[in-house]
Design brief:
The protein is mainly α and 106 residues long. It has helices at residues 2-14, 19-41, 46-53, 57-64, 73-82. It has one domain (18-106): 434 Repressor (Amino-terminal Domain) (Orthogonal Bundle), CATH 1.10.260.
Length: 106
Amino acid sequence: MANRSRWEDVKAGRGGPSASTRAVVEQDLALGQLIHDLRVQAGLSQRELAERMGTTQSVISRLEEGGGARNRIDTLARVASGLNRHLVLSFPAELPSRLHDAVQVA
């Protein structure tokens, strides 16, 4: 029990992630959820999407879990292609209030 107590003290002393770190994680999770939802909507398993992308099921799993590392545009383009979708990047002067089938990151 003493070790657990010390570990809890260490964790408590570290503090939580910053607001900007939390925002990045939330965006990654939202993108992962979107990929998952679109894959399921397309009636594909992770393995089937992976085959269409020329990758492995574990890569799809990682993407759907939020990536862990920032998702690269070329990877997202391959996901879109595998789902028979289009990837659209935009730098509008003003953001629309709601983006359909999208994750707003800015």
